[in-house]
């Protein structure tokens, strides 16, 4: 939002994981005679609930299988951006008094977060100690190769991986044992998921990395580096 980029459904995962899951289900399934919605939403402020139209005449427009994509785009924009538009405009106005737009617009959102959050001195042993596994065990070769790869990376690469998997490059004051997700404390988790031809994926609201069972160290390093440095994660391949 600081970079004036439009928010998209992927951004919702880090804001409200359940709502993101519901909207994703809506897009992937036929909602005819299943969901009964119109182009409105409820907004509660200071104990008072009001109905907000997502588009002109929204209360009279039903959400159908044909227009559900537009609904998802509009409700996402409202939940993340428009409902706090006034407050955010005040924030960004003050932000640009200190840092002019032309100095930040050369960065993408991940680079800007790294600049603001800083590149941390990450203790890999602490990270490993407070990691859970799903479908893998700590002794599996792919996991051994994963930590070997991370130890070989410099501080910026480690911070980019942390950002890729958790949404932020910052480490809690007390280390990885206090890592937070969108719904409270969430340990870093590596889950066995995907085919060996695919890139790792991230679920930032759960601090989870979906890691395919790569057969050797060189493939893992190549795929992980590509995912962290060249893609946005969040389910992309």
Automatic annotation (TrEMBL):
Question: By its UniProt entry, which PROSITE patterns does this protein fall under?
Answer: HECT (PS50237)
List the keywords (alphabetical).
Transferase, Ubl conjugation pathway
Source domain of life: Eukaryota
Key word Transferase present: yes
The pathway that the record names for this protein is: Protein modification; protein ubiquitination
Q: Which residues form the HECT domain?
A: 1-237
In Swiss-Prot or TrEMBL terms, this protein is called HECT-type E3 ubiquitin transferase
